[in-house]
Specification:
Blueprint (H helix, E strand, L loop, with lengths): L1 E5 L1 H5 L4 H14 L5 E7 L11 H10 L3 E6 L3 H10 L7 H4 L4 E4 L10 E6 L3 H4 L6 H17 L2 E4 L2 H11 L6 E3 L13 H11 L5 E5 L8 H9 L14 E5 L7 H9 L6 E3 L8 H7 L2 E4 L8 H8 L4 E4 L4 H5 L4 E3 L4 H13 L1 H15 L4 H28 L1
Parallel strand pairs: 1-2, 1-4, 2-3, 4-5, 5-6, 6-7, 8-9, 8-11, 9-10, 11-12, 12-13
Length: about 400
């Protein structure tokens, strides 16, 4: 069986779908020694900057005896325009050779003659269009329904997303397979001697609440800042240390209100902006936090709360979309639009040591349910079902 995988997001994106793609495909390759894989990806114009995760592409190819990479000499945006805006019918098989299955882990699939598996992570651009870049939302509104019609198997990150697909795009539930994302084993409780050097290098305070994610409207950071501003930092001192809020994430889009809110609330001395945190450091940053907070307006899954649970860090998150499905009873929940509830929840977690201990244990147990190996097994089963179907169709045509 020959499986082609669109690895563009894995090659270019640091967080979100990029990390999902790298982790999932790595687990799939580790459990599929007899399958032939081709990882194709937008590689940028010749002579321009290479994809930031090109080393990971090479590592994956080296880890599997029947895996090769096919770089396409276009940047991601140009390749998207070629396939999905201009709809040029250039099948990916012209570059990869014949495929039995095409796996598209980022909403849309290129033109192909193979059977396809397409992952829909969320429908945030429809549920909360005010939080999306207008051009991106318009593209997805056009491209995703076409991808769904062509897909042989649709994968959703959660039951919440499966319900959204039925409610908003009239996709029959039986066409959708829920395959949960997972948390890598490197996200675990770590000892102080491992964590403290990273604290010093990143200049992290001794006592802080942590948020991890791209700075964009859907993450609800303006309300988080307003909730944090209502906490008296001296009343919640740990020893002599004041309380800080650490935001770890790159600027995404429409982020200006976040920085204006920091100035309006005079939080410049209490909020630390880390920008993007390297994969090797991220588990340690979770471990160092007193509390992790994720007040998102909407999520198709919500990987950061799960990573925090796996590190034993108490979590408070929103009570909407997929987030209760992810955290279960291992976290505090609050309405995303209720600043008072969010502030009270953070205070409660900081003050109640018994609650923190209970959530720590519950979080560790909850996180063990989400493993990339299990997610990969589900996808591999789909590969075989699609390949068998394609073989049956070819045999039927030959006998006619």
């Amino acid at each position: 069986m020959h499986v082609g995988i669109d690895f563009t997001a894995g090659a270019w994106q640091g967080a979100g779908i990029g990390r999902y793609t790298r982790e999932l495909i790595g687990a799939i390759l580790a459990q599929s020694p007899d399958i032939r894989f081709t990882l194709f990806y937008a590689a940028g114009f010749p002579g321009a900057d290479s994809p930031p995760y090109l080393r990971e592409v090479r590592r994956l190819c080296a880890s599997h005896p029947f895996t090769r990479a096919v770089p396409i000499p276009l940047p991601p945006r140009r390749l998207t325009q070629l396939w999905h805006r201009l709809r040029i019918p250039l099948p990916i098989e012209w570059l990869t050779g014949p495929l039995d299955v095409l796996h598209a882990p980022d909403f849309v699939a290129p033109p192909t003659r193979a059977r396809t598996l397409v992952t829909i992570h969320d429908l945030s651009y429809m549920v909360h269009p005010e939080c999306a870049v207008p051009g991106v939302a318009a593209f997805l509104r056009d491209a995703v329904p076409r991808a769904l019609r062509r897909a042989d198997i649709i994968v959703a990150d959660s039951e919440s997303t499966r319900r959204d697909l039925q409610r908003l795009l009239n996709v029959a539930p039986e066409r959708v397979s829920v395959v949960y994302p997972a948390v890598d084993e490197r996200f675990r409780p770590l000892p102080p001697e491992v964590c403290e050097p990273v604290r010093q290098r990143l200049r992290l305070p001794s006592c802080f609440i942590l948020f991890v994610g791209t700075i964009e409207p859907r993450k609800n950071l303006v309300r988080l800042l307003e909730a944090f501003a209502r906490i008296d930092p001296t009343a919640l001192r740990i020893g002599r240390d004041d309380l800080f809020l650490v935001i770890a994430g790159r600027r995404g889009w429409m982020y200006q209100p976040v920085f204006k809110t920091i100035e309006r609330l005079r939080l410049q001395d209490r909020v630390l902006l880390l920008d993007f945190v390297a994969d090797a450091d991220l588990p340690i940053v979770y471990n160092l936090a007193r509390v992790f907070v994720y007040p998102s307006i909407y999520e198709g899954f919500g990987l950061p709360p799960l990573e925090a649970l796996a590190c034993g860090t108490p979590v408070i998150t929103s009570d909407n979309s997929s987030l209760p499905e992810v955290v279960g009873d291992a976290a505090l929940l609050a309405p995303a639009d209720d600043v008072n509830a969010l502030s009270a929840g953070m205070i409660r977690l900081l003050q109640d040591s018994a609650l923190r201990d209970r959530l720590r244990q519950a979080g560790l147990e909850r996180a063990r349910r989400f493993r990339w190996e299990a997610s990969a097994r589900q996808i591999i089963e789909h590969y075989y079902s699609l390949s068998t179907g394609a073989l049956h169709e070819a045999t039927t045509r030959a006998l006619r």
